[in-house]
Write a structure and sequence with these properties.
Layout: E1 6-9, H1 12-23, E2 28-30, E3 37-41, H2 45-55, E4 64-66, H3 78-84, H4 98-108, E5 113-118, H5 125-128, E6 133-137, H6 142-151, E7 155-156, H7 171-178, E8 184-187, E9 198-203, E10 208-213, H8 219-226, E11 230-231, E12 262-264, E13 288-292, H9 298-304, E14 308-311, H10 318-334, E15 340-343, H11 351-363
Parallel strand pairs: 1-8, 4-6, 5-9, 10-11, 12-15, 13-14, 13-15
Antiparallel strand pairs: 2-3, 3-7, 4-7, 5-6, 9-10
The structure holds adenosine monophosphate (AMP) and magnesium ion.
């Protein structure tokens, strides 16, 4: 244990203290609307290295740089302002299709959309794992914005969990995983979105928008806004993600994982006929904990005989499922009475539905029920 970790509500004193620590090159746990982040000065390579140390994150997995909403007020426009700060490359501000990017920024920032663009000179290679691009996002959480306003530099921040584990959506989750390794966690309450941002990569000519990670903001919404077809990432938007190894950052297929084995159904429980469902061999005689996106029919209780059931949403509303997904996965993982976790997947009807499937797929290491 290196530090006594303190959890502070987001008072102005705590914001100032977080800013002081960040200026001194330390890492701090901060709330965002998606999940809690482990933040460091994005301009300071040594501070950023500490994020990788604390998380035990491999150096090939790049970090998202979080930027102040003050860029949105800049008279020259946010792209010019971000390039002036050295966060993105100067040429982006003169790209032929810059108006489409500005449209995305105007619509979704502050919010859960990360743009991958050519990186500026002030971002050290350690942040982007040596890539010439940087992922940037303007977070909506007030406390995070207050810290950004106080530091005056952007903050590199991945999710504040040990590498590969379940993302934190409460300050307590950060404490349980990283307590003793960091000095301060700002408690900004439960995360309202609950799953990580949508990440899109943008290339100017020919203008290309590619989804690297599904999140709340859906591909078709983006398509409608900018009038350009959006490329989904092969494999990632599907129920089964092919074993593709760590070829693309953040697309590691073993991620967001509980320590207990997790098995997924191929469709929501609400769309399964209980009499047709056979209990898979792995679950026979095991103490099963069920994570259900909607209410679980009595007949499924009889089939699986679970020791615990968590129903994420009465009406299977994606927003509610997403908000409680990681919290509930943690609860089942930490429950001594549970051996195996069985979860159903929501219909991918919205951006969030797809994002939830994606996270569950990776958490299950791609083990579907049938
Ligand atoms: P985390 O904040 O822990 O969800 O992780 C950040 C994720 O952002 C990485 O795992 C990548 O998927 C993605 N990312 C960040 N920067 C880039 C980049 N330059 N190119 C592609 N993906 C990126
Ligand atoms: Mg993460």
């Amino acid at each position: 244990m290196r530090f006594t970790t303190r959890i502070h509500l987001a008072t102005s004193d705590a914001i100032q203290e977080a800013a002081q620590l960040l200026k001194a090159g330390e890492v701090v746990g901060l709330p965002t609307e998606t999940v809690y982040g482990l933040a460091a000065n994005a301009h300071n390579a040594n501070a950023v290295k500490e994020i990788f140390n604390v998380k035990q994150r491999p150096a090939f997995d790049p970090l998202i740089v979080h930027v102040s909403d003050q860029h949105l007020q800049s008279p020259a426009g946010p792209l010019a302002s971000l390039s002036l700060e050295g966060t993105i490359a100067p040429q982006v501000a003169t790209w032929k299709n810059r108006a489409k990017i500005e449209l995305l920024i105007a619509r979704y920032w502050p919010g859960p959309l990360t743009l991958v663009l050519p990186k500026g000179l002030s971002i050290p290679d350690v942040v982007t794992s040596g890539q010439p691009t940087v992922g940037i996002r303007c977070p909506a959480h007030l406390a995070f914005q207050q810290v950004l306003a106080a530091t005056k530099f952007p903050l590199a921040a991945p999710s504040a969990n040990l590498f590969g584990r379940i993302s934190p959506t409460r300050a307590q989750h950060v404490y349980r995983e990283l307590g003793g390794q960091i000095q301060l966690i700002i408690d900004g309450g439960p995360c309202t979105v609950g799953v990580e941002s949508t990440i899109i990569q943008i290339i100017d000519e020919p203008f290309t928008v590619k989804i690297l990670r599904p999140g709340k903001i859906a591909a078709d919404e983006i398509e409608r806004l900018i009038g350009t077809p959006v490329t989904p990432t092969p494999g990632i938007a599907q129920t089964q993600i092919q074993k593709q190894g760590a070829v693309a950052p953040g697309m590691l297929d073993e991620h967001y994982a509980p320590t207990k084995p997790l098995i997924l159904t191929l469709r929501p429980f609400s769309q399964m006929v209980p009499s047709m469902v056979a209990v898979p061999n792995e679950l026979k005689g095991k103490k099963v904990g069920i994570l259900s996106t909607g209410p679980l029919l009595d007949s499924f209780w009889n089939t699986f005989n679970p020791v615990k059931v968590i129903e994420l949403s009465h009406q299977a509303v994606p927003q509610e499922i997403a908000q409680r997904l990681f919290l509930s996965l943690r609860e089942l993982d930490e429950d001594q009475t549970v051996d195996w976790i069985l979860a159903d997947v929501p219909e991918p009807t919205s951006g969030l539905g797809l994002a939830i499937r994606d996270r569950l797929n990776r958490a299950s290491r791609n083990k579907p029920l049938d």
